[in-house]
Amino acid sequence: MRYRFVFTDWFNHNLKTLRKHNPNLRADLEVFLGTFEAEAHPIIPGTGGARKARMKSKGKGKRGGYGVIYYWAIEDTVWLVTIYDKVKKEDLSADEKIRVQKLVQAIRDEQSEEGDL
Predict the structure, then answer these.
(1) Which residues lie below 8 Å from residue 94, measured CB to CB, with a gap of 6+?
(2) Least crowded by CB within 10 Å, which of 16, 44, 49, 58?
(3) Across the beta sheet with 4-7, what order do the strands follow?
(4) For 91, which DSSP code?
(5) Can you tell me the mean pLDDT for 70-83?
(6) What's the N-to-C CA distance of the chain in angstroms?
(7) What is the pTM of this model?
(8) Contact criterion met (CB below 8 Å) for 90 and 65
(9) Dihedral of alpha carbons 33, 36, 41, 47, sign
(10) Which of 82, 63, 84, 74 shows the shortest CA–CA distance to 107?
(11) Which residues contact 67 (CB under 8 A, 6 or more apart)?
(12) Is residue 13 a contact partner of residue 63, using CB atoms and an 8 Å limit?
């Protein structure tokens, strides 16, 4: 299935920061998005339905790669919520989970107004 990806401001901010330390990140992201399967990743408890995927980093694999948090509620649309370096942290903090939950709720509210959900 082909997805339409919506990049949140939080995702774009973190992507820009991470690219300073990994010039291959854009290419890694393109490979990740090209092989992406939304239903293949677990829902993160306490986030309102966001999911976590592991993204490989060239030369590091999945363990040394990135965590990608996304929300998928409409068949072909995926919101990329945030991205982080898995070497520096394994999971989202409690505060980050709350932030994700609020962002997911805002997406739901917006989609309900548009009649998509």
Answers:
(1) none
(2) 16
(3) 4-7, 77-85, 61-74, 51-57
(4) S
(5) 94
(6) 19
(7) 0.90
(8) no
(9) positive
(10) 74
(11) 52, 53, 54, 55, 83, 84, 86, 89, 90, 91, 92
(12) no
Quick: pLDDT tens for 8-50.
999 999 999 999 988 889 999 999 999 999 999 999 999 999 9
Q: Domain 4-111 belongs to what topology?
A: YaeB-like fold (3.30.2310)
- pLDDT computed for residue 113 by the predictor: 80
Give pairs for 65-68: CB < 8 Å, separation 24+. 65/28, 66/18, 66/25, 66/28, 67/91, 67/92, 68/32
Query: Using the 8-state DSSP alphabet, how is residue 53 labeled?
Result: E
Encode pLDDT of 40-49 as tens digits: 999 999 999 9
Q: Residue ranges per domain, the chain?
A: 4-111
Torsion of CA 54, 31, 24, 73, to 10 degrees: -50
The tokens for 114 are 């548009």
Asked whether 43 and 53 are in contact (CB, 8 A), the reply is no
Tokens coding 85: 């370096």
CA 104 to chain CA centroid, nearest Å: 12
